[in-house]
Amino acid sequence: MATVSVSVQTVVHEQYGNCLSLENEKYTLMFPLDYGIRIIHFSLREGCNVFFHDVEEAIKQEGDAFHKMGSDGWKLRGGHRLWTSPEAFPRTYAPDDQPISWKETDHGVILTSQPEPWTHLQKEIEVRFVEDEVELIHRVTNVGAWTIETAPWSLNVMAPGGTAVIPQVSRDTGLLPNRNLILWPYTKMNDERVEWGDDAIVVKQSRDAASAFKIGINHEPGLVACIYPDVTFELRFEHIEGAVYPDGGCSFECYTNEHMMELETLAPLDKLEPLQTAEHKETWKLVTGRTVSHYRNQ
């Protein structure tokens, strides 16, 4: 596995605040240091951020449950974050509003959150440059005294205006089904933002959307793209055949509203004993000149 040289420095960004900046000759990533763990910025060098940043803090959760946690609430903020599935309120929304720690490696950085008193989980993301890609190893550790059944859940909150291309499962299973489609109560099958293609599902983010839309699938291809006019975000992960996934068998979920789009990958459910860790890997790449047709029949 070939690795490349990286530059790591602390900076004060006008929008993101105190951050860690990670760069190589192709990419720039930024990680907030005062909350997280988050990857708030991902771009080509000198390019535009492909992640959504909630400047106006329009998306948040508040209420008495958070006061009991010693917090004012949970904020979406944007960027890439590490959650745990299945989703439940308020457990999933444990605020990531405390400073993170980090250490540099030969090929990137390791980011570590403080243990969450509410969930008894500690989260870590190792980020490393490998050739022309970025690898992320997500780790969730049970720091409590009881067994927890959960799954690492990686959410990429994409900037508005993107088009997600989700290749369909093509494995021939004869008389048996080869895919599932999971729908949420607010999901409308005739939503104008989605195209139900035989080779791919295409979802467009729209600032004019009146409601949210979400689907989940057993995504065996392990490749999703989010296309913008100037750049395309490629997301790869491993779907493990036969594993038990959350939400009725989802290894990938796509959510969108009027603000942004989320590309979400999930690991299989696992029973974590005290001090046991679960891992989940994603690979990112930014490319130019790609269209929807490029990702059909992948």
Average of per-residue pLDDT values: 94
Which strands sit side by side, in order, in the main sheet?
A: 9-10-11-12-24-20-19-14-17-16
- The helix-strand sequence is EEEEEEHEEEEEEEEEEEEEEHEEEE
Shape summary: globular
The rounded distance between the terminal residues' Cα atoms is 24 Å
Q: What is the strand and helix layout of this fold?
A:
Layout: E1 7-13, E2 17-23, E3 27-32, E4 38-39, E5 41-44, E6 60-61, H1 64-68, E7 74-75, E8 79-85, E9 101-104, E10 108-112, E11 121-130, E12 133-142, E13 148-158, E14 163-167, E15 181-183, E16 194-196, E17 200-204, E18 213-217, E19 223-227, E20 232-237, H2 246-249, E21 252-256, E22 261-266, E23 270-272, E24 277-287
Antiparallel strand pairs: 1-2, 2-3, 3-5, 4-8, 6-7, 8-13, 9-10, 10-11, 11-12, 12-24, 13-22, 13-23, 14-17, 14-19, 15-18, 16-17, 18-21, 19-20, 20-24, 21-22
What do you see in this structure?
The protein has 2 helices and 24 strands. It is mainly β. The strands form 4 sheets. It has a 10-stranded antiparallel sheet, with no helix packed on it. Strands 4, 8, 13, 15, 18, 21, 22 and 23 form an 8-stranded antiparallel sheet that branches. Strands 1-2-3-5 form a 4-stranded antiparallel sheet, with no helix packed on it. The two termini are 24 Å apart.
Which features characterize this protein?
2 helices; 298 residues; globular; eight-stranded antiparallel beta sheet; ten-stranded antiparallel beta sheet; mainly beta
What would you say about this model in short?
By secondary structure, the protein is mainly beta. It has helices at residues 64-68, 246-249, and strands at residues 7-13, 17-23, 27-32, 38-39, 41-44, 60-61, 74-75, 79-85, 101-104, 108-112, 121-130, 133-142, 148-158, 163-167, 181-183, 194-196, 200-204, 213-217, 223-227, 232-237, 252-256, 261-266, 270-272, 277-287.
